[in-house]
Amino acid sequence: MNGDVDPAVKALEARQDEILRKLYELKAAVEGLAKTVTTPDADLDVTVSSSLSSQSSSCAIFKGTTNLDALLGEDLGALRDIVINANPAQPPLTLLVLHGLLCQRYRVLSTVHVHSSVSSVPPQLLSCLGPKHADSYARHMFHLGFTLIWKDVPKLEMKFSVCNMCPIEGEANVARFLFKLLAPYPSDPALATLVDSWVDTGFYQLADGSTKERAAVLRALNSALGRGPWLSGLEFSLADIACYCCLLQNGSASSIAANVQGWMKSCENLGHFGPAKLLLK
């Protein structure tokens, strides 16, 4: 036979490979369901996307290093899965931006589910974490899981470990948690307080405040950005991410002062806000 492999053997090997691939997919699906049962959100209807992103140096804009074991506990072999319940009527733009940044630093298994409490979800929300990756069945290849569940909830909440921590409620607080996986908060207490103040101002006044409150925040933004390139001074921070996304979401970006316009352009030039802007189209 001159070393040629019988075509029937080749076909059998290909069939075996396909069976093994499907077994891995089933194993991953069972592991994912087990994770969501413990959150507990067992009545999920459909899994629509998962993605793998390799580590990148593009997060170099953030100074300092982070240690996932120190922040989330030691990895004992199970995927560390961050599960977020969000209402599709109020898409969490800030969290989508932070998800993109996490994908640039870590290998992230990203999955979107639709809960039975929601009758329909726009296509852009189903694909907001990116396309399905061929290696999504191999959970051991990932540093983090990022599971977004579109659900009829009054307030966004995040669950990480039901044994060791209570749920985190509110987009601002979840954003703080996720940002700490990217970079430590400023060591200077005054600077850390300034960042937190802008985050709260963005969510509670710029996004949900009255017309008068929003106008006051826009004036404060313009004044602060006249003193430096970013809201916390010389470094891009969570304050910029939060306030930028709140401006986008409430439509205030259409009538803003020069300093704020320049700052928004600088934010867009970083390339991190694409996922948030797509949801508003």
TrEMBL record:
SUPFAM superfamilies: GST C-terminal domain-like
Localization annotation: Cytoplasm, Cytosol; Nucleus
PANTHER family cross-referenced by the UniProt entry: AMINOACYL TRNA SYNTHASE COMPLEX-INTERACTING MULTIFUNCTIONAL PROTEIN, AMINOACYL TRNA SYNTHASE COMPLEX-INTERACTING MULTIFUNCTIONAL PROTEIN 2
Entry-linked CDD domains: GST_C_AIMP2 (cd03200)
Main location: cytoplasm
Keyword Ion transport appears in the UniProt entry: no
InterPro entries: AIMP2, AIMP2_thioredoxin, Glutathione-S-Trfase_C_sf
Protein name: AIMP2 thioredoxin-like domain-containing protein
Keyword annotations: Cytoplasm, Nucleus, Protein biosynthesis
Domain AIMP2 thioredoxin-like: 78-169
Native species: Characodon lateralis
Keyword Cell division annotated: no
